[in-house]
Design a protein that fits this description.
Order of helices and strands: EEEEEEEEEEE
Structural class: mainly beta
Strand content: over 45%
Shape: globular
Largest sheet: 7 strands, mixed
Radius of gyration: 14 Å
């Protein structure tokens, strides 16, 4: 259905910023949900932010006020602007899409992940 490629991760100091990008292999204008999860070593994957097809957004409490999710349908790309980064934001960040109309086994897709490391 779709392939996702993340980019923009890297090493940054506490208080710094990064912008992650997630490029999709197909048009995203009618994909219901897109967003980002993250997974730190030894921990479960957790939801960071979601944006719907009509651009409603939702954020985990631990990133509210610091991260901003957006989508550019013309570029088939979703972004995550991360400001005021903290060491606890260190994780692999995964882009995802969810389109229920594709069916229960095909609705959800992940990217390969991009590493974000915040030094103290």
């Amino acid at each position: 259905q779709v392939q996702l490629v993340e980019s923009g991760g890297g090493l940054v100091q506490t208080g710094g910023s990064l912008r992650l990008s997630c490029a999709a292999s197909r048009s995203i204008f009618n994909i219901d949900y897109m967003g980002w999860y993250r997974q730190a070593p030894g921990l479960q994957r957790e939801l960071v932010a979601t944006i719907t097809s009509d651009e409603n957004t939702n954020y985990a409490d631990f990133v509210k006020g610091r991260f901003t999710i957006s989508r550019d349908n013309a570029k088939n790309t979703v972004y995550l602007q991360m400001n005021s980064l903290k060491p606890e934001d260190t994780a692999v960040y995964y882009c995802y899409v969810n389109k229920p109309a594709w069916g229960p086994n095909l609705a959800f897709h992940w990217g390969q992940g991009t590493q974000v490391t915040v030094s103290s």
